Amino acid sequence: MCGLLVGGTILLAVAIIWLWVERWHLILPGTWPALKWLGFRRTLTGGLHGIWYGRHITSYLRFLRRMANTFGPHGRYASWLQNTYHGKVLTTDCAKAIVSIEEKIPRQDLGTRVIPYFRARDIVLNALPDIVISQCGCKQLNHKKGISCKRSDPPYMTCMLIGKPLTDFHLDHNPGTTKRVSTGEALKLLESFHEAGLVHNAWFKDCIRDQFYVICNCCSCCCLGFDMQKIGIQQLTSSGYVAAVNSDTCQGCGTATNCCPFDAIRIVDGKSFVIWEKCMGCGICVSRCPNDARSLVLDERKGQPLDVRKLTAQ
């Protein structure tokens, strides 16, 4: 009798959790396609935490932050996080190329020169990708603590999910904080995010079939990837570019120093100086320089850019 009671309690708890995930529906239209896309094995081994991530991202990110602060940059947790959940910094041109792609990109491993992690580094895009803009969980998490983002305003709609069935899943499960946008709207948003000083990051995650799924437009004051970098967990990797300074035209005004999200710029002997190790090649300082004294240059030591135009040409 006791066993039946315990079993019944567990089943009731599971049923309540399921209904909560499905916003008190038996199953939402976007859920079944997403589960089929994941597959039975992935759903059991990683998809369930992916559903948690998709349904309530703020609590998920809060958990990751606490784990990072508890265990720090060393040990298995840091290694697991870097290899299963990481971002690639994108220039605005590369970000725009992703959202406006018109050729199918079959699933392919980007390799260690683009994404230097052994997992979650695949990209797959269909022609005319479906795009959904959604609320940034990191910014919203800080907002709940009374901390306002320095680069964007509420409701912090700065994350772009790319491609079905994930877009439909998020629209169904987060109707108040997601909106489908056209390619033209996405391109304008990317430009406005860059002008605001946000960094475009392509994120890859293990429970999303080990592949790219979203462009987040991140800030150093709120976002998880930046927080991880600060404590020594290398969750972000360079765009493949580095900022270069023309000393003849640089006036040492400090504009780039103040706008760099990676704290990679100093004034040395009256000129702007780039700390190579810190520069991630986002290009924000280039567009902000009032004297046109800066440019982005390819640097093989930083890896290769994630440029889908080159992938379609192969």
Question: Would you give an account of this structure?
Answer:
The protein folds into two domains: 20-237, no CATH class; 241-300, 2-Layer Sandwich (Alpha-Beta Plaits). The chain has helices at residues 2-21, 31-38, 40-55, 57-71, 76-84, 92-99, 137-144, 166-173, 183-195, 224-230, 255-259, 284-288, 308-313; strands spanning 85-90, 105-109, 122-125, 131-135, 157-162, 178-181, 199-205, 211-218, 236-237, 241-245, 265-268, 271-274, 294-298. It is built from 13 helices and 13 strands. The protein is globular, with a radius of gyration of 21 Å. Helix 4 (57-71) packs across helix 7 and helix 6 (92-99) runs antiparallel to helix 9. Strands 6-4-5-8-7-1-9 form a seven-stranded mixed β-sheet. Helices cover 41% and strands 21% of the residues. The longest helix is centred in the N-terminal third of the chain and has 20 residues, at 2-21.
